[in-house]
Amino acid sequence: MSRTRIKICGTTSIKDALLARDAGADAIGLIFARSRRRVDGPTARRISLAVGPSLARVGVFVVGEEGGALDEVLRTADVARLSALQLHGVSGAAGDLYLQAALRYYPVLQVVRPGDELPQPHEGLELLFDAAQPGSGMTLDWQALRTRFATGSWLAGGLGPQNVGQALRILPAAGVDAVSALEVSPGIKDPDRVYAFVRAVSAAGPRNDHE
Ligand SMILES: O=C(O)c1ccccc1NCC(=O)[C@H](O)[C@H](O)COP(=O)(O)O
């Protein structure tokens, strides 16, 4: 039995990073892609250094977008003191080469959207099932995902305190990730919702990896 990990995405300030840590999250997401929640490298570095060693810092990038070339991603990751990369838009044979190169430097959460082909397994790679529009609050069809939800995968897409328990009863996610349901406005967290989200994940209990 294992505890479900929690990532609070779209963190833009030290205050919200400490909030996520103190509420009991395992990771924060720092978005470098085009987004209302985007942070720059130096801001992300200040956040990373402020939270201490126990909270993972996941850098969110869109491959194929400005700033998504691997050399730029690695430079940003170094500046921002990231612990892992979250990669959107990785697909096909070129995507697999990109991924294998990225995995030489950082563990990777690869984003899979409904309808995407499932990637080959690689050491250091975990999958994050998310909606087609990341950060939009759109939920996935959890029942429809059941047959393709690989063990060890993460779940995102419209999760919040009100529905994460139900999602976890349907899908045995290794981790859950949320942003829009936890905000007062894009990039600014609502402490009550962050705490409520962490409580709701805990209340759902540990998952049985052998089901
Ligand atoms: O959140 C964004 O603005 C964003 C923009 C571009 C690429 C990725 C983005 N977010 C990535 C995340 O991991 C979100 O937490 C995930 O998509 C879930 O979002 P939500 O449905 O709002 O909870």
Kindly summarize this structure in a few lines.
Its EC number is 5.3.1.24. The chain is α/β, with parallel strands linked by helices and 211 residues long.
Question: Helical proportion?
Answer: 25-40%
State the end-to-end CA separation.
10 Å
Overall shape: it is globular
- What assembly state would you assign to the polypeptide chains in this entry? single chain
Order of strands across the main sheet? 1-2-3-4-5-6-7-8
Would you tell me which CATH topology applies?
TIM Barrel
Pfam family, one: PRAI
Family: Belongs to the TrpF family.
Pathway: Amino-acid biosynthesis; L-tryptophan biosynthesis; L-tryptophan from chorismate: step 3/5
Protein name: N-(5'-phosphoribosyl)anthranilate isomerase
Describe the protein's architecture and organization.
The protein is an alpha/beta fold and 211 residues long. It has a single domain (5-203), classed as Aldolase class I (TIM Barrel, Alpha-Beta Barrel), CATH 3.20.20. The chain contains seven helices and ten strands. The chain has helices at residues 14-23, 41-51, 70-79, 92-102, 142-145, 164-170, 191-203; strands spanning 5-8, 27-31, 56-62, 84-88, 108-112, 125-129, 154-155, 175-178, 183-185, 188-189. The strands form two sheets. It has an eight-stranded parallel barrel. It has a two-stranded antiparallel ribbon with strand order 9-10. α3 (70-79) links the parallel β3 (56-62) and β4. α1 runs parallel beside α2 (41-51) and α1 packs parallel to α7. The mean pLDDT is 96.
